[in-house]
Amino acid sequence: MAYRFVCLPGDGIGPEVMLQANRVLMALRIGFQEQPFGGSAIDEWGKPLPHHTLEACKGADAVLLGAVGGPQWDGAAKRPEQALINLRRELDVYANLRPAVGDGVDLLIVRELVGGLYYGRRGTMEDGTVFDVCEYHPIQVERIARRAFELARSRRGGLVSVDKANVLDTSRMWRRVVTEVSADYPDVDLKHALVDSAAMLLVMHPEEFDVLVMENTFGDILSDVAAGVTGGLGLAASASLGDSGPGIFEPVHGSAPDIAGTGKANPTGMLRSLAMAFEHGIGEPELARSLEAAIDVALEKAPTPDIGGTATTAEFGDVVLESLEVPVS
User: Fold this and answer.
1) What three-state secondary structure class fits 50?
2) Which of 219, 199, 217, 218 is nearest to 209 (CA)?
3) Is the predicted pLDDT of residue 259 greater than 70, yes or no?
4) d(C-alpha 60, C-alpha 38), whole Å
5) How far apart (Å, rounded) are the C-alpha atoms in residues 206 and 209?
6) I need a labelling partner for 158 at 20 to 30 A (CA). Which of 189, 213, 270, 309 fits?
7) For position 290, what pLDDT does the model report?
8) How crowded is the C-beta side of 291, counted as CA atoms within 13 Å?
9) pLDDT tens per residue, range 204-223
10) Residue 207 per-residue DSSP state
11) How far is Cα of residue 154 from the mean position of the Cα atoms in its chain?
């Protein structure tokens, strides 16, 4: 298949779970190349996002990312996480999709990814006060809202917009813009929820949600909550999409340095992210469904230690490859 994937193994267990994604790509004869990224890139190239890595990503059809970070870079001036934040900004992947599925739950969190606290002004004042500014422009809110409405329209037609409009001016603007956009989607049932009550409902009644849309920091937190109530971070995938250019597809777990090199890492999140790349990155939904079905078989036959089994990362990947059926076009 004439697609171009760029794989960024990163740090910790990143290379181990990425290897299983690479095996699937090779089995499907999809071209890919690996590039340095994160802490490993700092060690080799002196920067977390080398220029040649960025250029390769810009020319790809989809970017796969393993994980970044580790204790050896804690407190350093150059941090692995800077690579991810800069790559998101360079590719303008403003829409982060975080599905959470399991035990009667099937929801999707749509997180605005290139605005808010993580990209706002920050600094330290002379008296020692430190500040981080949460900033949003209405255009940023409108485009993530439209993406969320479109996704809700393609699912069960329910959208909850999460904010803190009783306290924050950014949230009041957010609520106003989302409400204005809703006029173009009369077939989608829009509700608004404050972030604290939304968090409680996610824990107590996650089955009530279809699609949720929210700003960057709220999305970072609540998407992990949703992953926790449906099996844990080791199983969760994500897609970060823009309006043009390649998306970034990555598991939501960290680099887990404590188990790196032991063969215990669960590659489910990475492989599900690859499935999202097939659907949202290269427009091959049947291939995505085939891979998801193979992952389900592996979860049943070869669970890793984090979910009560004894299979190694590679053994899990073996079952996925054995079960993978390539759709005939």
Assistant:
1) coil
2) 199
3) yes
4) 18
5) 6
6) 270
7) 96
8) 26
9) 999 999 999 999 999 999 99
10) G
11) 20
Q: Give 217-243 pLDDT, tens digit per residue.
A: 999 999 999 999 988 777 889 999 999
Rounded Cα distance between 235 and 268, Å, is: 5
Find residue 4's DSSP bridge partners: 31
- Beta partners for 191? 160
Residue 273 CA to residue 139 CA, distance in Å, equals 28
Give the residue among 116, 69, 79, 90 at the shortest CA–CA distance from 219.
Answer: 116
Contact 158, 210 (CB under 8 A): yes
329: its two tokens = 């076009």
Token code pair at residue 262: 């032991």
User: Can you tell me the distance from the alpha carbon of 306 to that of 227, in angstroms, rounded to the nearest whole number?
Assistant: 14
Provide the CATH topology of domain 1-93+238-329. Isopropylmalate Dehydrogenase (3.40.718)
At 242, list the tokens: 């823009």
- Residue 171 tokens read as 């949230």
Q: Where are the alpha helices (DSSP H) in 249-309?
A: 268-276, 285-301
- pLDDT computed for residue 300 by the predictor: 96
Q: How is domain 104-229 classified at the CATH fold level?
A: Isopropylmalate Dehydrogenase (3.40.718)
- Give me 57's structure tokens: 């990503």
DSSP secondary structure, 174-189, as one string: HHHHHHHHHTT-TTSE
> Catalytic residue positions?
118, 164, 196, 220, 224
Where in the sequence of the chain do the CATH 3.40.718.10 domains occur?
1-93+238-329, 104-229
In the sheet that holds 189-194, the strands lie side by side as: 31-34, 4-10, 62-67, 247-251, 237-241, 95-102, 105-112, 211-214, 158-163, 189-194
Question: Global pTM?
Answer: 0.90
Work out the burial of residue 234: count CB atoms within 10 Å of its CB; fewer than 13 is exposed, 13-18 middle, 19 or more buried: buried
CA-wise closest residue to 268 among 148, 112, 102: 102
Residue 186 and residue 149: Cα distance in Å, rounded?
10
